[in-house]
Amino acid sequence: MALLPPDPVYCLKAPNRNSSFHSLCFHTSERLYAGTAHGTVQLWDLQTNRSTYQLSVGKSPIIGVAHTEDALITQEKEGTVKLWELTNSAYVLRHESATDHVGFCRFVFHKDAVIIPRGESNISILCGQTFAERQLLSPAQVDSKLPPLGTVMCLLPVEIQEKPYLLTAYESGTLVLWDLNGSKPISHLRVSEDECLMAMDYDPYTNRGVCGGTSDKIFVFSLDRQSMEIRKKSEIAIKNAGISRLKIRKDLKVFVSAGRDGRIRIFSWKSLRPLAVLTEHRGELLDVIYSEEKVSMWKAVIMAAAGADGQISLWDLYN
Q1: Cα distance between residue 75 and residue 23, in whole Å
Q2: Are 280 and 8 in contact (CB under 8 A)?
């Protein structure tokens, strides 16, 4: 490694030692929401680094959480997605949808739409305000040459040449690009014969993405802008198998992988070379995110990582 691993700027600890954090989201640069294994969402104030509010959502782990301007969206591992309206004093449940998907795929909130996994390789796109279904993406209902896909594992909305698409990773190790205007798949790529994809990210500026899952490899892919075909470019080997999250930072300087071995691996996005391995966590990592803006306490864009050890680590990485 060319650079020494940095230390976290702060670590937030779960009040319950037996708890773990499964999901994170920033709402403004000063508020961090964390979904726990016990079915709650905790709000952390990053000006005081204390938990100031806890919302009881359900009985299973909260694997997905997002915040709109005036509402909180949560996803439980057993499949239910809920919309909580922010009132003067608390969050009030307004809508919920049973997805019939029990697994690890997280919903995505994108441009007033909630994109959720469903059973049998299906995907629903809901109105972000009413939870009414706007669109159903079903491989079984389109005339396509898709192979058996298995369970939906990861969702990523992308915009290419001003048109909306959805990149989807499946249990079979297959990436599928859906045309949202036509509700149909237009290309697919089997990245590996023995890979269950768990995570991916894509950068439209360089037209390059990364995906990974159960193996000890990160796969690099691109999209042909003319044919819209997904093309595999290269592989990056890592020491231990198992990737739960991949995230490219907004400034395109670095990307990170969060592993089942508790390691956060930092790579240069330009060269794809490894920069550092962060070893702060003592259990499986389950989520990693970046703040959209600088956090005032540290005057920098902050990366937050969380996992099974009941700890949220905050990092100022090569800004």
Answers
A1: 10
A2: yes
Cα 36 from Cα 42, distance rounded (Å):
8
Q: Are 21 and 306 in contact (CB under 8 A)?
A: yes
Write the Ramachandran bin of 311: left for phi over 0, alpha for psi from -120 to 50, otherwise beta.
Answer: beta
- Hey, what are 295's tokens? 């956090």
Is pTM beyond 0.85? Reply is: yes
Q: What is the DSSP string of 192-239?
A: -TT--EEEEEEETTTTEEEEEESSSEEEEEEE-TTT--EEEEEEEE-S
Tokens of 122: 């299906």
- The predicted-structure confidence for 119-170, as pLDDT tens digits, reads as follows 889 999 999 999 999 999 999 888 667 889 999 999 999 999 899 999 999 9
Burial 184-211 (b: 16+ CB within 10 A, else e): ebebbbebbeebbbbbbbbbeeeebbbb
Q: What is the DSSP letter of 265?
A: E
> The tokens of 71 are what?
């509402």
Contact criterion met (CB below 8 Å) for 115 and 108: yes
pLDDT tens for each residue of 57-110? 999 999 999 999 899 999 999 999 999 999 988 899 999 999 888 888 999 999
DSSP state of 147: P
What does the alpha-carbon distance between residue 255 and residue 209 come to, in Å, rounded to a whole number?
10
Q: Is 174 helix (H, G, I), strand (E, B) or coil?
A: strand
User: Which tokens belong to 91?
Assistant: 């969050």
Cα separation, 274 vs 89, whole angstroms: 46
Tokens 């198998």, residue located: 241
Could you tell me the CA-to-CA distances from 218 to 173, 224, 244, 246, 272 in Å, in that order? 12, 20, 11, 9, 10
Rounded Cα distance between 302 and 315, Å, is 5
The 264-268 sheet, strands edge to edge: 243-248, 254-259, 264-268, 274-278
- The single residue listed with the structure tokens 């919920």 is 96
Q: Residue 196 corresponds to which amino acid?
A: C
